[in-house]
Predict the structure.
Amino acid sequence: MSKFPYSDLVLEHFKHPRNVGEIEDPDGKAMEGSPACGDMVSVHIKVDEATKTISDIKFQSYGCASNIATGSIITELAKGKTLEEAKKITWKQASEALGGLPPIKAHCSVLAVEGLRSAIRDYEERHGLVAEKVPTTREVVEKRLKKVMNPLSGLDLVRTKLVSEIEVKDGKVKVVIDLPPGHQFANAIREEVVEKIEPLWDVEEVEVVFTE
């Protein structure tokens, strides 16, 4: 009989995960992963403006025991830390804090760490704290659109070839989506596109156009 692959600590965090849920009106938030690959994690943070520490953090996980356990441990490791400290948390630290994960499940801890770092980046962009102010390009916008899901397939808008045009000019970003404006998911997609692009430091307006 083969040994069960998860440590007792992983199972403890899987059965009784800490900090599960959403934060109403979060200061920073992110979603990483894809339902198509079976693993997703969302991270919401509240930040104390004066000390730049994470005063509250919540996560939601859609996936396996490793995904849920690493989301739980990452939030525990990050709570009370400054943004700079939290950015330095690694997937190896998360794995070690759980007593080790099976090698095949290492991507789950990577996903949770990416979720944390993306939520911090979201906060920094919305508060003008980005140190390296790289001009927004078509490539930057496309990278962000890869995190917007096409609800019909569970894959992102870029991979499902729904983005027919991206235009970046004078602080304005225009994204053309190959769906009719009356489509059942049009409004949800528009909101998510704006949410992903608007925080970029040099973007003043985001226009999402659906093809007729």
Residues 106-126 form the longest helix (21 residues). The chain has seven helices and eight strands.
